[in-house]
Amino acid sequence: MNPVRVLVVDDSATMRALLKRSLSTTPDIEVIGEAGDPYDARQKMKMLDPDVVTLDVEMPNMSGLEFLEKIMRLRPTPVIMVSNQTGPGAAATVAALEIGAFDCIPKPSGLAGNTFDGLPALIREAAKAKPIMVARRRPPTGAPAAPVEVASRHTDWPELIGIGSSTGGVEALITVLADFPEDCPPTMIVQHLPASFTGSFSQRLDRLCRARVKEAVDGDPISQGHIYLAPGGWHLTLKKAGGLRCALSKEDPVQGHRPSVDVLFSSIARNFQGRATGVILTGMGRDGAAGLLEMRKKGAHTFGQNEATSLVYGMPRVAFEIGAVERQVPLGKVARSIFE
Question: Where are the catalytic residues (predicted)?
Answer without folding.
Answer: 166, 192, 287
